[in-house]
Amino acid sequence: MTSRTMWLPLSAALSLLACLTYESSAMAVRDHGPGLPGPPRPPPPPPRPKGPSRPVPWQAMVSLSEGGSPGGFGGGALLSDRWVLTAGRNLFVEADRKHTQGQKPQVPKVYLGVAKFQDAEPSKEVAVEEVFLHPGFQNTSDWENDIALIKLRDPVNFNNTLMPIPLPEGEDQEETPGEMAIFGAWDMGIAHQLPGAIKYLKLPVVSREECRAGFQSGRGPVIDSKMFCTGPSEFFINVCFSDAGSALVFQNPKTNRVYAAGIVSFETACAFRKHAVSTRISAHLPWIRDIMREDQEVSAQRESLVANLYSGKI
After folding, report:
1. d(Cα 14, Cα 164) in Å, to the nearest integer?
2. Which GO molecular function annotation, any one, does this entry have (predicted)?
3. What phi and psi, each to the nearest 5 degrees, are found at residue 222?
4. What distance in Å separates the CA atoms of residue 279 and residue 224, rounded to the nearest whole number?
């Protein structure tokens, strides 16, 4: 694909900034010790931004069950007018990798332009032509190569609620501890309740060493260079059920370029685990570009639309 600089809509950036400004105010609350009153708790957070200026217009819903029943759907990221990137595990009903041995990936239903779970209706569904599972997915590990591509049958039209997210390029640095990622969460929650609107979270990157230490005492992935980890938001909202396949988006501090750096893989962090694990997209770029090599969606109309819609900073 031809590389190009893309930006978030300015209105979306402002909406997200207002929400995140409140989150940063929580840092002022500190533990003053037993019996000592601390500062008053901050007021309830403002409603999450909704409507056409939502800051995750690349978000897709990937479903393997009728009606999107609990446990039957996950996330995805629109890369172009015919391609969606998601987690490999989203193409199988079985959660454990060993149960996928010898099985072909299922063809899911894909919904685009959905800001609320209830909006996943036939008018938002896009037909799928083919799915591509990473060839290293069905191996002995339950965590490696958790990535897949979904090719849509027909090109989709972009607008202010539906836009692609760029892939990382050479000048986009590797994620560093403390760096913040934008994440669109379906927020099914620990109780597996059906979600409402997408929650917009900002999650901090944690070091590989810290992440590895957090999984040493329990069952979890072996963290390698093809993965990176994030912690919970300021209010301890974390990646949870149904979030696998959603993109973690960063902004290059030097170029202000916005791009997808990760795809959520280990999504059962919720309130029980401190860290969530994502597949690093840059580690799989050769495979992604090889699969998408026949993608010829570049057009004057698309170039003009993207140039107008991506502006400002996140």
Report:
1. 19
2. serine-type endopeptidase activity
3. -90, 110
4. 10
Residues 6+ apart with CB under 8 A from 256: 7, 313
Q: Which of 141, 164, 154 is nearest to 89 (CA)?
A: 141
Neighbours of 201 (CB within 10 A): 27
* 49-164+284-309 homologous superfamily: Trypsin-like serine proteases (2.40.10.10)
Q: Tell me the pLDDT tens digit for each residue of 211-267.
A: 888 776 656 678 889 999 998 887 777 888 788 899 999 988 888 888 999 999 986
Do 211 and 160 form a contact (C-beta atoms < 8 A)?
A: no
Task: Give me the phi and psi of 240, to 5 degrees please.
Answer: -145, -170
CATH topology identical between 49-164+284-309 and 180-282: yes
User: Which strand ranges, in their side-by-side order, compose the sheet holding 109-112?
Assistant: 125-126, 109-112, 59-63, 73-78, 83-86, 148-152, 128-133
| Residues 223/246, Cβ–Cβ less than 8 Å | no
Q: Is the pTM of this model over 0.85?
A: no
Q: Domain locations in the chain?
A: 49-164+284-309, 180-282
Residue 125 and residue 88 in contact, taking contact as beta carbons nearer than 8 Å = no
CATH number of 180-282: 2.40.10.10
Are 267 and 243 in contact by the 8 Å Cβ rule? The answer is: yes
> pLDDT (tens digit, 9 = 90+) per residue, 262-308?
999 986 667 566 888 999 999 999 999 999 986 654 444 444 554 45
Q: What are phi and psi of 261, to 5 degrees?
A: -105, -25
Reading the block at residue 150, the tokens are: 């979904």
The two three-digit tokens of residue 265, written as one number: 């893989």
